[in-house]
């Protein structure tokens, strides 16, 4: 779900490795997430509202027999859980956008973040949809952010430290001139949507102090968020919607990924 708020990684993390059978259950949930993303891609056209997209996702949750992970998700303010089935984040919205009467326009980019639980196991994935005639610089933003995610996947191997992967991600994005969002990070995932460890897309002093060794069976939701301008963000008065400080566009891509004996296995690619 659009990343977890990044504070100190901290010691004492309980990183639980999953068995091959458990990973296959997560892959089954990932297939459903992929189908929902494909449907959202089909209907995300000029004139549709973000609420209509969100309602379609709710219908598909019932059709596929899954539990959506986002709606009513707890917040730090009791009784005010997240109000939508999906996080739908348009243009300058980085993460946690709420479905409403906003109509999608030609040239928009629309981040769709979807998480479900099937038979007790979770999967979480995000894509950014380019609608119609998107400007070249915004298309490049989306391309670079996708490449940052793929770079992480390609470099996962048992025994590597997460800081090595995070450094590659941050350097790639910044060398391309993009702002790296540092307020929100990826996360472990399994029977709960948010598990240890936190998975930054950048290197911090705290990460270096409390680094994560990748081991077979660890499953991570990896989700870089890159901005066309500064990486700085603010949260709106609704307590959820996060936008770029300079109101420039933001892109967000995510996969649920298992660490294998030889590398990485993407569980939300539809296989």
The CATH topology comes to Creatine Amidinohydrolase
Q: CATH-wise, what's the superfamily?
A: Creatinase/methionine aminopeptidase superfamily
Basic shape:
globular
Q: What's the CATH class label?
A: Alpha Beta
How many separate structural domains? Answer: 1
User: Number of DSSP helices?
Assistant: 5
The parts where pLDDT drops under 50 for at least 5 residues are 7-11
Q: State the total count of DSSP E strands.
A: 16
H/E topology pattern: EHHEEEEEHHEEEHEEEEEEE
Structural class: alpha+beta
The averaged pLDDT comes out at: 94
Strand content is 15-25%
> How far do the termini sit from each other?
21 Å
What would you report as the Rg, rounded to the nearest angstrom?
17 Å
Largest sheet: 6 strands, antiparallel
Specify the helix fraction band: 25-40%
The CATH architecture name reads Alpha-Beta Complex
Question: What does this entry show, briefly?
Answer:
The protein has helices at 20-43, 50-64, 136-155, 162-175, 205-209, and strands at 4-5, 67-68, 87-90, 93-95, 109-118, 121-130, 179-180, 184-188, 195-199, 219-222, 225-227, 233-235, 242-244, 250-252, 255-259, 264-266. It is α+β, with helices and mostly antiparallel strands. Strands 1, 8, 9, 10, 15 and 16 form a six-stranded antiparallel sheet that branches.
């Amino acid at each position: 779900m659009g990343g977890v708020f990044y504070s100190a990684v901290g010691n004492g993390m309980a990183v639980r490795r999953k068995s091959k059978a458990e990973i296959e259950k997560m892959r089954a949930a990932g297939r459903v997430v992929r189908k929902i993303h494909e449907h959202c891609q089909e209907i995300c056209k000029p004139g549709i509202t973000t609420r209509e997209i969100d309602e379609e996702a709710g219908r598909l949750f019932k059709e596929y027999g899954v539990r959506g992970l986002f709606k009513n998700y707890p917040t730090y303010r009791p009784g005010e859980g997240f109000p939508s089935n999906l996080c739908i984040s348009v243009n300058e919205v980085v993460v946690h956008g709420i479905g409403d009467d906003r109509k999608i326009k030609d040239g928009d980019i629309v981040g769709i973040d979807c998480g479900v639980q099937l038979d007790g196991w979770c999967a979480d994935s995000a894509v950014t949809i380019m609608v119609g005639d998107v400007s070249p610089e915004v298309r490049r933003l989306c391309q670079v952010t996708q490449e940052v995610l793929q770079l992480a996947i390609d470099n996962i191997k048992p025994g590597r430290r997460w800081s090595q992967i995070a450094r590659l991600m941050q350097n790639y994005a910044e060398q391309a001139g993009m702002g790296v969002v540092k307020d929100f990070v990826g996360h472990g995932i399994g029977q709960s949507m948010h598990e240890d460890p936190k998975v930054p897309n950048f290197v911090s002093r705290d990460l270096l102090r409390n680094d994560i060794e990748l081991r077979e069976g660890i499953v991570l939701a990896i989700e870089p968020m890159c901005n066309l301008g500064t990486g700085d963000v603010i949260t709106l008065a609704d307590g959820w919607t996060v936008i770029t400080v300079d109101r420039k566009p933001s892109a967000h891509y995510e996969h649920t990924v298992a660490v294998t004996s030889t590398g990485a296995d993407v569980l939300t690619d539809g296989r």
